[in-house]
Amino acid sequence: CLPTVGMEPLPQNIEPVVEAVSCYPNLIQSNTTAQVQFSLREAASIDAAVFDSSGRLVSRIVQNRFYAKGIHLLPMDLQALPLASGVYFCRVSTPHGHGVCKIVVMR
Predict the structure, then answer these.
(1) How many Å apart are CA 82 and CA 58, to the nearest integer?
(2) Alpha-carbon distances of 36 from 12, 14, 90, rounded to whole Å
């Protein structure tokens, strides 16, 4: 299943736990460290992973790490990730929802 950009739909009256996900810079060069920024409405354990445009898992950035409520940055070292030029998606997931941002990589 190909991840979609944005937030997953939630049933009525349920607020998303992951409020926003973005990547900076977003035309990433091969020697750049990018930052994935996400905001949590409440404290939660997260998983963060990078998927290619076919929806295949490319790399896990964080697995089952606890974060407090608020805005957080995850560094993403492109030299350590096996990413060719192209479009990718970073998905930040909690047990109660997820957010996705698009990443463009240029080698």
Answers:
(1) 7
(2) 28, 25, 8
